[in-house]
Inverse folding.
């Protein structure tokens, strides 16, 4: 199955694609998330994978906006643990490294490690795994990449330091996108919905109250600015339910309170990873 991913071979999107379609994923590398959506829209890829939320960095606003711009459908969600390594050519030592290349978000996730090694100069790149590939292809001594273990394996790099992200509980949520709606098997118990509200006091509270009365649980909300109407917003919400058939009443209730209501996808919720909690006395 051809799956459009943002990132190179060995990226976290590549790892997520393998998780979604074990043994059957054929990654189609895209430099941007817009290119991922376009590949799915045109049929160049059967599915697209898009990161939308990270447990440390929060929601990716631009990607939720893309869900409103493209007529695509969410089929599935999955969560991936993100473990960042410092990778370099075999034989290099940490003392040999002068520059570190990676995606800006990956650099941010490893800020404590980088602060503890002030001799390292950070260089922002478009992708974690592509940074690793460039080191191998260019035989770049004195340069390291921050990327995941799959990038190290596929590009033949050595890990100078492992698990350098600031927090061990670092997870990213991905959505699986397709051009057609899902078949509905297994039955959905989660949905992503976008809608507009008039710019008046209490409209958002009323919309959310309507969802509560319909018996669904709000798990995520993101406001998206409307470029042509400053200070007005589209809202993206994720809702879950336990009672079968709860989606239709929820959509009807929301439609009575909001405009341009669109079901982005109804799907089976992913397995959220357990998060370690500090023990206090």
């Amino acid at each position: 199955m051809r799956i459009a991913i943002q990132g190179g071979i060995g990226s976290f999107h590549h790892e997520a694609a393998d998780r979604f379609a074990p043994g059957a994923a054929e990654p189609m590398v895209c430099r941007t998330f817009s290119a991922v959506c376009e590949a799915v829209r045109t049929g160049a890829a059967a599915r697209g994978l898009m990161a939308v939320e990270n447990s440390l960095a929060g929601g990716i606003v631009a990607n939720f906006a893309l869900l409103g711009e493209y007529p695509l459908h969410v089929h599935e969600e999955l969560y991936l643990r993100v473990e960042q390594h410092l990778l370099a050519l075999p034989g290099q030592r940490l003392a040999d490294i002068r520059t570190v290349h990676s995606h800006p978000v990956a650099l941010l996730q490893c800020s404590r490690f980088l602060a503890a090694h002030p001799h390292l100069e950070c260089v922002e790149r478009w992708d974690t795994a592509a940074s690793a590939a460039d080191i191998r292809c260019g035989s770049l001594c004195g340069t390291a990449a921050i990327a995941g273990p799959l990038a190290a394996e596929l590009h033949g790099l050595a890990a100078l330091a492992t698990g350098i992200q600031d927090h061990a509980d670092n997870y990213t949520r991905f959505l699986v996108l397709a051009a057609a709606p899902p078949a509905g098997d297994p039955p959905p118990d989660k949905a992503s919905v976008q809608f507009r509200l008039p710019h008046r006091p209490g409209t958002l509270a009323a919309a959310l109250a309507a969802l509560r009365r319909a018996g669904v649980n709000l798990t995520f909300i993101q406001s998206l600015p409307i470029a042509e109407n400053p200070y007005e917003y589209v809202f993206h919400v994720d809702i879950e339910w336990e009672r079968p058939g709860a989606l239709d009443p929820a959509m009807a209730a929301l439609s009575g309170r909001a405009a341009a209501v669109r079901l982005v996808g109804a799907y089976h919720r992913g397995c959220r990873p357990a998060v370690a909690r500090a023990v206090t006395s």
Summary: DSSP finds nine helices and 15 strands in the chain. The two ends are 51 Å apart (CA to CA). Residues 85-161 form a domain with the D-Maltodextrin-Binding Protein; domain 2 fold (CATH 3.40.190.10).
